[in-house]
Amino acid sequence: MSGYYKWLTSGVSELKKRKAKLAERVKWHFYDSDESYGSPRIHGELVKEKWIVSERTVGLIMREEGLRSCMSRKFKVSTTDSNHDLPIAPNVLQQDFKATKPNEKWVADITYIPCRQRKLYLASILDLFTKQIVGWKLSDRMTTDLTLDALKMAYAAKKPPKGLIHHTDRGSQYAAKDYRTQLLDYKMKPSMSRKGNCYDNACIEAFHSILKREFIYSKPKFKTVEEAQQKLYRYIEFFYNRKRSNSTIGYMSPVCFEQLYYANMA
After folding, report:
1. Which alpha helices (H) appear in the chain, and where do they start and end?
2. Are residues 61 and 162 in the same domain?
3. CB contact set of 248 (below 8 Å; sequence gap of 6+)
4. Other CB atoms within 10 A of residue 169 CB
5. Are residues 60 and 112 in the same domain?
6. What is the pLDDT of residues 75-117, one digit of tens each?
7. Which residue from 47, 63, 127, 235 puts its CA 20 to 30 A from 243's CA?
8. Where are the beta strands (DSSP E) in 53-97?
9. Contacts of the segment 232-240: beta carbons below 8 A, 24+ positions apart
10. What is the pLDDT of residues 152-169, one digit of tens each?
């Protein structure tokens, strides 16, 4: 009988040790993500580490430890000026957000970034295959130069082949002559959303929503433009592109997913 109780208590002790180790990993991934990961993404990271655990168990541990992923406040500033007489490109993308390879389809948009020093605007370009932000630019002026600089950054980084579909809303910054000329020089195929249809550019709007929820509105407001630039650079280039797991690409980071694609093509 004493052997049975010894076996029973040792089994309970092992379970407690395992749960304690698991809780430590859960907390590590939570704080490593700057408190942005919920139970689905933490579960995905644990699976990569060969843990056999359910998402429900991860959620229970997070509640026990008082870990709650950051939530955004509802706040919206209009960044689309479609009240103009500039040429409008046809909707080539047609809400077909699936891509078969990198640099086949890009989507672009502008979003407002709050800052105490002055209002800021972020222009971003996202690759629909890798989910990577391939180009971006922060400025205190919502002009064509803002979107052009993001486009030039993306082109310099990726050198996409002829025929890439480049989709945006109908904003004047994207319909401007200089922007259309640059797309022509890069041999990209312009595409624009239908009037008043936010779903036509849903993927890049989803990125901006993630940015606001996980990073912008869950932290103190940027004090200066320089601070905003530095912290956005770290979030986009080091966290979002290289580290943050994305459920649509198998809980891999965009850069890892892109590297895996080219490795398999070699």
Report:
1. 2-32, 39-48, 55-65, 144-158, 172-175, 177-185, 202-211, 225-233, 254-265
2. no
3. 131
4. 26
5. no
6. 455 555 556 679 999 999 999 999 999 999 999 999 999 999 9
7. 63
8. none
9. 232/113, 232/122, 232/136, 232/138, 235/211, 236/124, 236/133, 236/136, 239/33, 239/34, 240/133, 240/210, 240/211
10. 999 999 999 999 999 999
CA distances (Å), origin 222, targets 100, 124, 178, 231 = 38, 19, 31, 9
- The token pair at 33 is 């993500």
Q: How much is the pTM?
A: 0.76
- 102: three-class secondary structure by DSSP: coil
Query: 152 with 244, same domain?
Result: yes
Give me the amino acid identity at 125: I
Classify 107 as helix, strand or coil.
strand
Residue 19 lies in a domain: yes
Q: What is the DSSP letter of 252?
A: B
154 and 38 share one domain: no
**165-168/120-127 β-pairing:** unpaired
Count Cα neighbours of 154 within 13 Å in the Cβ-side half-sphere: 32
Q: Are residues 50 and 114 in the same domain?
A: no
User: How high is the pLDDT of residue 60?
Assistant: 80
Residue 78 lies in a domain: no
Cα dist from 121 to 133, 136, 148, 190, whole Å: 16, 10, 13, 22
Residues 228 and 112 reside in one and the same domain: yes
Question: How many domains does the chain contain in total?
Answer: 2
- Local structure of 179: helix, strand or coil: helix
> Which amino acid, one-letter code, is at 39?
S
Query: Rounded CA gap, 213 and 96, in Å?
Result: 25
| CATH number of the domain enclosing 139 | 3.30.420.10
Structural domain includes residue 82: no
Q: Which domain holds residue 185?
A: 105-265
Same domain, yes or no: 178 and 234 = yes
